Amino acid sequence: MQFTYHSxxxxxxxxxxxxxxxxxxxxxxxKLLDEIYFRNLKDDYLYLYKVISIDRKKASCExxxxxxxxxxxxxxxxxxxxxxxxxxxxxxxxxxxxLGVNKITFVYSExxxxxxxxxxxxxxxxxxxxxxxxGRSSIIELDLNNSLETFLNENIDIHLLNFSDQYIDDxxxxxxxxxxxxxxxxxIEEINKFDKEKIVGFKSNLILRSETAILSAASKLLI
Length: 223
Hints:
The protein is 28% helix and 26% strand. The chain is of the alpha/beta class.
């Protein structure tokens, strides 16, 4: 772990309890006077605390120092992901966070199953753990739009990932917002909303699952 998340990091004193206590003092076996790095993931500071007391269910830490330490991807990438099974999203989102994706907007497209609902609280916990592991100083910003048509009407300069003779590798420098389909891809009507030069693909004619496509695209654009 590069740091531990605590929402009150920056306070002079913080109390450690519940799962964080179990992890730090049962699993990691930290002891009195140990120094531990924390982030609140709301600012760019890395906070160093000293353990000043430990009992059976909680511990207290005192702030020693702080430093601005920004660890982010050099590029900004906004992914628009047509909603798939939430279990698929939960399985993939930590990797997208580690790759440095800036924002994900989930949208319902024509082929999305409308009964799928996103558990944002659960996703945030996954993202916090991911950033703690990889050292990222923020987490992916998450958003939801109930209609792909509405989203496209309200946003500009979006590229569509689909089968295309224009490869994503060749458009890397200009892609800032990328739309990825759900299982089943896009309807003809949805594809027709895009100019040909805004549709990009991979150098492969294989049909990819949605999570394979989004991870592959993010890797090509950010690494």
